[in-house]
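Subject: sequence -> structure tokens, single chain

Hey, anyone have a minute? Need the predicted structure for the following. Not urgent.
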Amino acid sequence: MSVSRPTRLGDRLRRGSRRIELARPQAETRSSVLNDLVVITGFSGAGKSTAMAAFEDEGYFCVDNLPPEMIRSLAELFMHVGSKVERAAVVSDARGGSYFAGLVAVLNELAAQGVSYRVLFLEADEQTLLTRYQETRRRHPLAPAGSVVEGIARERALLAPVRERADVVIETTGLTSAMLRRKLADAMLPTRTPGRLAVTIQSFGFKHGPARDADLLFDVRFLPNPHYEPSLRPLTGHDEDVAAFIDRDGALAAFYERLMPMLDYLLPQYVAEGKSHLSIAVGCTGGRHRSVAVAEQLAARYREHGDYLVEVTHRDIERDTRG
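Reply:
Had a minute. Here:
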């Protein structure tokens, strides 16, 4: 169930918690900038990493594996004047060991201090949790030397008081990651614009190394190369003369005739699957001419579409004049 790239600041905050004590701000220095704090908790293996990734993709400041006492400190930090964090999500669970038992008390203190927060509780049946642990081959945090069944039983008792405080409880048995993301969008992200897929289009040069973390990658080195025209070599794919040269024999137009319908089909499918961000990489030899021209054309097309948030970047455009 775990498919996230969560911000691991929690580990650093936790390691420093014995040495650093954040001073409580006075009432006059408080601000209402932090208007939504989501505390994600629940059973180990129930999908907390997937949930955290969903909030992170929606722009929340996310911290994983945060002991309850540090939740209070983090909330106080974000309520200082000058803080720009309006929405935050933290995961606090049994990995916190004995510290986790204090979560209910911390929630009471947050409420007394006027902090706006919500608790998301994730659970699944025992067989599902067992299966997920078998797939990942990880030890249960409450039974490092024992069986997963023992760990689940201990966790159930530990989580009972927290579950009673939950604003939203989601049963993840039988849910894929995409299904859980959709449930979260419906239950906790009502302002999310349906179908608003964020698309990043990146040009790059293969000679400078492969593109990283691309969902889709297109190699356009088959197109005519402007590098071999002395007058075009100093230019980039932003220039009309470069685009005209690449399409001098109709190769670029023929490529678009095949590429665009495929993307027109794929992008809505990714939206339906619950994907919130798609990375498209376009590569040529040096990342200056052909890949830049194609990336800009794709960005222009899907910006006009209106259903996508489009960003275009050119990784290697300034590195050399090899197109």
